[in-house]
Amino acid sequence: MHPLHHHVIKANLQDIKPTQVSIGYIEVSKKRAEWKKLSKKQRNALLDDHWFPSILGPKNEYYIIDHHHLGMALHLEQQVEVNLTVLKDLSWLDKDTFWRVMEFHQWVHPFNERGQRVAFSDIPTSVAKLKDDPYRSLAGLARDAGAFAKDLTPFSEFLWADFFRSKISKKSISDLNESLTLAIKVAKNKEASYLPGWAGKSN
């Protein structure tokens, strides 16, 4: 098989498959607010600049491996078409092998909105069905506030979300200001030093 060139194709947003279960709805809301401020020309430019990296999977279905928050925002704003770039053609694999390869490359995050491992079959079949994890929202807000650095490690914000899940109660997270203040504080602790982008002190 010849590797695919990273050319851009048009795809219906409803047809592309996510590779994670949850997202942070606060981050989605921020992207929707940004979208609403754009003119039609600016919106087209944004879509041209933000290709959804994807893997071509069984039954020739496209699985996006990034930009899930943008995908949900565009869905809620009733955007129909998006641009994809295909990084790998795995369409010839059976479903079980496909998911094993996806996990090996860290192209899938099979954990639900409570941070629990789920079966690959439990991953939503469309971007519209992604679930809200408030701790993922908190991780995004904490990153933007400088609690930790943005990192290229796949799904790094989910690792932070799980850390905050263990430190901040569900009751506390309902108060955004309170939970963000607490998140910024605990993110500096030495026990968070294993996390990508940690910006605390080592001594």
Task: Label this structure with key terms.
14% strand, alpha/beta, single chain, four-stranded mixed beta sheet, two-stranded parallel sheet, Helicase, Ruva Protein, domain 3, Conserved hypothetical protein from pyrococcus furiosus pfu- 392566-001, ParB domain, 203 residues
Q: What order do the helices and strands come in, and which of them pair?
A:
Layout: E1 8-12, E2 22-23, H1 25-36, H2 40-49, E3 52-57, E4 61-64, H3 68-76, E5 81-89, H4 95-104, E6 131-132, H5 134-144, H6 156-167, H7 170-173, H8 176-187
Parallel strand pairs: 2-6, 3-5
Antiparallel strand pairs: 1-5, 3-4
Helix pairs in contact: 1-3, 5-6, 5-8
